[in-house]
Each structure stands twice: as C-alpha cells, then as structure tokens.
Amino acid sequence: MVTLLVTGLALALASCTGKAASGTSSAGARAPGTVTVDILYLNHPPVLPVLANIDQVLKAYGDKLAVTRHDFDTEEAQAFAKKKNISGHFPVVILINGSPTANLGGRKVTFQSFPKGEGTGMIPDGDWSMADLDGALKAATAK
Question: 52 is in which domain, residue-wise?
C-alpha cells in the first residue's frame, strides 16, 4: 500500500512538472510472468513527445507490464545503464525483459535512439518504430 502511494505521488508530481519520474514503476508487486520494461531517457525536448508516444503503446498492456523509468540525468540511471552495458548518448533506450533488442519477423530490432522518422539533425533515428515496440511487447506478453 505504501509503495502504491509513493508511486502515485511520484507520478502525480511528475505530471505537474511535465517530467517523468525517475525509477518509478507502473506496477507494484510483480506477478509471475509480468514483462519488465525499463526506459532510459533524456528528460527534455525533443525526447518528451517520444516518451508520450511510448506511454500510449505501453498503456494497452496494463498490468502485464512492470515499467520503470530511468532519467539519464540521475546517478541511479547512470549506474543502471552501466550495469546493463549501455554507453553513449541516446535519447531513449527501452529494455524488454532486460534486453534492448527483439527479433520481429526475422529482423533484429534495437530499441535505442529515436524511433524511425523522429530523429533530429544532431541525433539520428534508430531502427525501430512504435509498431515494432508494440510487436515486441505482444510477443513478450504472449509467453
């Protein structure tokens, strides 16, 4: 109960500031078979609209997912990235059950950088789309 209250408070505060809360989880205690999703992100434009689009995809899976957000600008997120061997300057990295890659129809997709078509002049698009994210989550939750 306390965990849910703290998580709710953190999310409420995040929505007031327009920033996603670091290290917050959308699920309290994880049920067996729950798919973990870790999102590492830079907490500033032009990343924020991408995070909103990611949230729309995640929303469809409800309690099948345990989502944790990691703001790259925090020490905790830097430690998490190091532990997961993530280095470099990426606006977004998504790990599904601990992995940033998924096999979709014989194609290896890495959920890193901006989705296709949403890169900036300074940071290129990744090789993934929101449809790829949805496909990877469908596959992961079907197991």
Answer: 2-142
